[in-house]
Amino acid sequence: MSESEARPSNFIRQIIDADLASGKHSSVHTRFPPEPNGYLHIGHAKSICLNFGIAQDYQGQCNLRFDDTNPEKEDIEYVESIKNDVNWLGFEWSGEICYSSNYFDKLHGFAVELINKGLAYVDELSPEQMREYRGTLTEPGKHSPYRDRSVEENLALFEQMKNGEIEEGKMCLRAKIDMASPFMVMRDPVIYRVRFATHHQTGDKWCIYPMYDFTHCISDALEGITHSICTLEFQDNRRLYDWVLDNITIDCQPRQYEFSRLNLEYTVMSKRKLNQLVTENLVSGWDDPRMPTISGLRRRGFTSASIREFCKRIGVTKQDNTIEMSSLESCIRDDLNTNAPRAMAVLDPIKVVIENFGDTETLTVANHPNNPEMGERQIPFSREVYIEREDFREEANKKYKRLVLGKEVRLRGAYVIKAERIEKDAEGNITTIYCTYDSETLGKNPADGRKVKGVIHWVSAEAGLPAEFRLYDRLFTVPNPGAADDFVSTINPESLSVVKGFVEPALKEAVAERAFQFERTGYFCADSKDSTPEQLVFNRTVGLRDTWAKIAD
Ligand code: ATP
Ligand code: MG
Q: Which of the residues 139, 181, 288, 355 could staple to 135 if both were Cys, CB 3.0 to 4.6 A apart?
């Protein structure tokens, strides 16, 4: 697509420019550090475009690092999906994939170093007691009675923890910092805990696992990261990040910078909530086309270029904000308007019989109205065709530019037809519209100067292929479902509607995730899981126009 050419500028890039200009760094090294406990979502795309985009533009490096210190919640399925999504978004990580778990030996060594320096201790408070001792934002915390154990005792107990001799929750290793700090994260944070869990990378080698705040900064330093970019909720944690690196023997001092996370209206971005939607079968999976996941958007028909463009348009700042769904949609619409070939599909068919038409004819139509390079295709025109039910009325005023009983309309790329009479079933529903056609109107106006303004789409009833169309609406009924007490209760029961109709025969070979504009009905792509040449299934990526603005009125 026409991704806007100019390099984005933002406060992080300005910091990098300054660091390069001053000689603080001679090159840039970033990382994208997902925890493999779910599939990536559009918020992660913002972080990916930022981190990998910086590496690209500054000829630097960007690591993909799995922040995998929580074995119970993590899974190799997530690792694989994340790699796939990063590549699909158009990015390549530098060197080998990194895992925090690769550093478990070193992390353990640094924990021992802190103990030796009198900067870490094994605590035996229960989790509840620990919470109680921590104090509040307005009250300082209290020292644990185990805080002043000797170095020898701490080393011995930590060794027992490591050897599996201590039950989960009975002991943990805490950094000895400041129980009165105004920053809660500095009140002797836990840095190691006991977990008898099998890890997807290290198996059963470990039964103690390092905590995020201890692991993250050390992993950054071990990888030589220069700018460690994360979201704003880690602002306070920066103190702990720096404290750990200041107190261990390591010769790299990455700096952490925070930006505001992406929030998108009418959806949720927390992996815990997305996981709940999946496990409670409220959606069909992580890649349900209604999900804000990369895999869901891909299956829905979003291109990677449109997601990159979206990330460029929203920019990177420190202000919390919520982006309207229409901004995301306008990116894909702009892309597909230029790049998607046109085709015809009828979503709510009604039969038209052209009584004075004989044999089937093959018509040639352009694949794109403004781009001849996209070529032409052939479509069969036959005595019986389908049109949309809403494109016919028995009576209508002049504003209605479609087919009206006794009047004429043009079938797109074909002839002018006139509705002569209709047939109804017992309930009064129209079953067939009988028409005549003017054989002199293929590619030209009627010879006698009759004006036919309306053009409608159609599919040959004889040659058309039956197809299922999945039409999506927003997944939630409120702009900020995450703020609801029970976000599940705000799910939109009409977020998916399935209709059955017909598509032109050229779509038999429609490739999954390749988009089409179905004339007048929107942008669609074949579903990657359920569509087969025998049973076509199309997802509507987005409508032709922004209908959200209207809804909001
Ligand atoms: P969750 O809270 O849903 O578990 P997370 O932030 O813990 O999300 P990670 O896998 O740790 O998820 O995220 C990897 C990277 O992506 C982090 O650097 C994180 O800051 C960034 N990220 C996550 N969500 C967003 C978002 N909504 N907008 C921008 N960046 C995000
Ligand atoms: Mg996280």
A: 139
pLDDT score for 161:
98
Q: What is the dihedral of CA 387, 388, 393, 399, to 10 degrees?
A: -110
Q: Which two tokens stand for residue 180?
A: 């009165």
- Is residue 552 predicted with pLDDT exceeding 80? no
Query: What's the CA angle centered on 277, arms 276 and 281, to 5 degrees?
Result: 110
Strand arrangement of the beta sheet that strand 29-32 belongs to: 29-32, 61-66, 98-99
CA 12–ligand 2 middle distance (angstroms): 20
pLDDT on residue 359: 83
35 is in an annotated binding site: yes
pTM higher than 0.85:
yes
Residue of 225, 261, 291 to mutate, ligand 1, most atoms within 8 A of C-beta: 261
How far is the centre of ligand 2, averaged over its atoms, from the C-alpha of 34 (Å)?
7
| Structural tokens at position 347 | 């979503």
Asked if residue 261 belongs to a known ligand binding site, the reply is: yes
pLDDT digits (tens, 9 = 90+) for 182-202: 999 999 999 999 999 999 999
- Where does 321-415 show beta strands of DSSP type E? 322-323, 342-343, 345-346, 349-354, 361-366, 376-381, 384-388, 392-393, 403-404, 408-411
Residues 289/283, Cβ–Cβ less than 8 Å: no
How far apart, in whole angstroms, are the C-alpha atoms of residue 68 and residue 240? 19
What is the 44 CA–ligand 1 centroid distance (Å)? 6
Ligand 1 pocket test, candidate residues 73, 217, 231, most atoms within 8 A of CB: 231
DSSP classification of residue 293? B
Taking only the tens place, the pLDDT of each residue in 133-191 is: 999 999 999 999 999 999 999 999 999 999 999 999 999 999 999 999 999 999 999 99
Which domains are present in the chain? 3-261 (3.40.50.620), 271-341+467-552 (2.40.240.10), 349-457 (2.40.240.10)
Taking CB atoms within 8 Å and a gap of at least 24, the contacts of 80-86 are 81/39, 81/40, 81/286, 81/295, 82/34, 82/36, 82/39, 82/40, 84/295, 85/39, 85/40, 85/44, 85/294, 85/295, 86/32, 86/40, 86/48, 86/52
